[in-house]
Write a structure and sequence with these properties.
Blueprint (H helix, E strand, L loop, with lengths): L11 E7 L8 E7 L17 H14 L1 E7 L1 H7 L1 H14 L7 E5 L11 E4 L7 H24 L5 H4 L5 H10 L20
Parallel strand pairs: 1-4, 4-5
Antiparallel strand pairs: 1-2, 2-3
């Protein structure tokens, strides 16, 4: 059972990201404040939910919560690395919230200070706190939607299925067609060949 909040008597904003381990596409982040009294049945870590469940929960979260989603491009990821890009995307999402808050809860164990507002990193927080779970669902569904649209322009990479992750089909397509502007060039797009002894 997920907790409503980490600290009592605070307005908490939950943050999470999606697409950190992908070879292509932006990293997305979401920030969510769940107003007092709002109950959304079925909230859980987005990875524990089916795509259908995520898509049913997304409009409920967007209708009943204060939320914002932000992203950073592959070019920005290459420039500042994926960890910094993930945190910057979370900061951008927090910028988008139209309500003040006095505590931030972040999935994982790494974050950087945001406007002198207190924060707590929570390992596997998307399976522990409702606001982080809601953020994980929004980040994941918004990113998946983006990659599905991109797949229409670049069908060879099968992004509608792999969403930019390094599946065998995706890597085979990179091997055959090369990388494009949506790939993260700082990532190992193809595994290094083992040297023969």
């Amino acid at each position: 059972m997920l907790a409503d909040f980490l600290l009592p008597n605070r307005i908490e904003a939950g943050c999470d990201e999606a697409g950190r381990g992908c070879l292509a596409g932006p990293v997305f982040a979401a920030a969510v404040i769940i107003p007092e009294g709002v109950v959304i049945e079925g909230l859980n870590d987005s990875k524990q939910l089916t795509e259908k469940q995520r898509l049913l929960l997304r409009p409920q979260i967007e209708a009943q919560c204060i939320w914002a989603v932000a992203s950073l491009s592959p070019k920005e990821i290459d420039a500042i690395n994926i960890l910094n890009a993930s945190i910057k995307a979370m900061h951008k999402a927090l910028d988008g919230l139209n309500q003040t808050f006095d505590h931030i809860v972040v999935d994982g164990n790494r974050f950087k200070p945001y406007k002198k507002i207190a924060y707590t990193t929570v390992i596997k927080g998307d399976g522990k706190l409702k606001s982080i779970a809601a953020a994980s669902i929004l980040a994941k569904t918004h990113r998946d939607e983006y990659m599905e649209k991109l797949a229409l322009k670049f069908p060879a990479y099968h992004w509608q299925q792999n969403k930019g992750y390094g599946t065998l089909k995706h890597r085979d397509a990179i091997r055959q067609y090369g990388a494009n502007v949506h790939h993260r060039m700082s990532f190992a797009l193809l595994p290094r060949q083992l040297e023969l002894l």
